[in-house]
Amino acid sequence: MAKAVRFNEKGSIESVLHLATIPIPKASPGTSVVKIRASAINPADCKNVEGSFPETTLPRTPGRDFAGVVVDGDKNDIGKEVWGTGGTTGYDRDGSHAQYIAIPTQGLQEKPANLSFVEASACGVAFLTASLMLERVKAQSGEHVLVLGSSGAVGSAVVQLARNLGAIPVPSGRSPHDDKTLNITQESFEPDLLKITSGKGISVVVDTVGDATLFQKSLLALNERGKYTFITAPKDPSHQFSFDAMELYRHDKSIHGVNSINVSFEDATALLGAMKEGFEKGVLVAPKGSAEVDMTDEKAVVEAYLRVKSGSKVKQVLVNNA
After folding, report:
1. 3-state SS record for the chain
2. pTM for this one?
3. pLDDT band for position 322 (50/70/90)?
4. pLDDT per residue as tens digits for the range 155-200
């Protein structure tokens, strides 16, 4: 038997999230079992417990990101140190906030050798989502890419991956510390962006924030044939963005929504696998300074979830030392 974080109904984190003892999963044809050493908590995990995802079936172990060791399955895989994320893990199949997880064998990907289990587990959703966004808009070498929310988990991953592609990321913030970062408090973004890009302008906007005002300003600032991609909607009840349709089509601009849940576990981990060399060479850098939380301490787990829900900038990672 093993410990797992569970919820049997959807509701407030404090009332429904709990620690339970469940059978250790067994390998089957096409499935391997990983003993989890570390599993990060993401904002979507909190929303999942609270009922934001109708596709989630119950009872369920939440969590998408993990790093650990293969303990059951093909004999050639036993002992491999792996990492993973993506698919409907934590939604319609038990997730990573547990001591063990059963995953598709085709999705096994060895983690970067230079990353600890905690560091590897903190990369998953952020780097997967960043990769999907840049892939969706086909970001090219030499293009300037405006990143809204560049200091956040996904945004900072976008900056790294865009640079690795040869594109030129343009960070953003309310109090920029340099002249290469867009001040988002400006009435219009175009003048500053033209200065930052030496007159070339912005070809791609990657929006990890979902603010209606920033959406309008950034969309207007896009070059002709520019592409805008986003992963979240405005927080008001309407969840609506508004834009000038005539301006959009006359300048051949396009808008692209991205949802990492729609990517299979195997495809998601393949994208992580493609980044392994970048991490090992130091071109890509994992989040540092994560808070490590004992996953067998129910009170500590609930508190960690609540910190993530409240917007903590410190990554919360459940660790399994058993």
Report:
1. CEEEEEECCCCCHHHHCEEEEECCCCCECCEEEEEEEEEEECHHHHHHHHCCCCCCCCCECCCCCEEEEEEECCCCCCCCEEEECCCCECCCECCCCECEEEEEHHHCCECCCCCCHHHHHCCHHHHHHHHHHHHHCCCCCCCEEEEECCCCHHHHHHHHHHHHHCCEEECEECCCCCCCCEECCCCCCHHHHHHHCCCCCEEEEEECCCCHHHHHHHHHHEEEEEEEEECCCCCCCCCCCCCCHHHHHHCCCEEEECCHHHCCHHHHHHHHHHHHHHHHHCCCCCCCCCEEEECCCHHHHHHHHHHHHCCCCCCEEEECCC
2. 0.96
3. confident
4. 999 999 999 999 999 999 998 888 999 999 999 999 999 999 999 9
